[in-house]
Amino acid sequence: GLKFKLDRQNSVWVAKINNADAGFSFLPNEVEDINISANLGNLKNKFEVDTTSDINDTNIEAIALAQHQMGITMQNYNVYLRQGLMAANKYNISVIDCSIATSAVPVIYFKTGNKTQITQNGDCIIAEARTGQDVIRAKDLIVYSILGVMG
């Protein structure tokens, strides 16, 4: 029952969900084929969600874009999205890995893999994607799940 409007200036689909605007690159039917074995409900109703990736990931640009887009949407729902990297780095970006994930502050780990899927290790959600486009699709599916549209 959601109505999506294309924001041509930003090349994003926008829907009013829970009285706030949410932006997506893909519509729900374009992400529903992603295999999920994670409980994405664990990401709902959080004040903070941390995201991370490997600095040398082959899809690092798409991952950075996914984190940026996710942060913009989630701030409309008063959720702080903290971004980090899996290991110490020369940029002094926070080290965030799955070992620090908690039920209060879960971690989403974006990474390149052989297939596009969303799995879970404790309070860490692992969004694995074959391509840069699949990174963005996985991000959209996660956001749809957090906002109660899917899942």
Question: Strand order of the main beta sheet, please?
Answer: 4-8-9-7-5-6
As a percent range, the share of helical residues equals 10-25%
> Per DSSP, what share of the residues sits in E-state strands of 2 or more residues?
25-35%
Outline type: globular
Query: What's the tally of helices?
Result: 2
Order of helical and strand elements: EEEEEHEEEEH
Mean pLDDT: 96
Q: What class, by secondary structure content?
A: alpha/beta
Largest β-sheet summary: 6 strands, mixed
Rg: 14 Å
Spans of at least 5 consecutive residues whose pLDDT stays below 50 are: none
Distance between the termini: 15 Å
- Give the tally of β-strands: 9
Overview of the molecule:
By secondary structure, the chain is an alpha/beta fold. The protein has 2 helices and 9 strands. It has helices at 60-75, 132-146; strands at 4-7, 12-17, 20-24, 35-36, 48-52, 80-83, 107-112, 117-121, 124-129. 33% of the residues are buried.
In short:
This protein has 151 residues and is an alpha/beta fold.
How is this fold's topology laid out?
Blueprint: E1 4-7, E2 12-17, E3 20-24, E4 35-36, E5 48-52, H1 60-75, E6 80-83, E7 107-112, E8 117-121, E9 124-129, H2 132-146
Parallel strand pairs: 4-8, 5-6, 5-7, 7-9
Antiparallel strand pairs: 1-2, 2-3, 8-9
Helix pairs in contact: 1-2
Provide keyphrases for this structure:
2 helices, single chain, alpha/beta
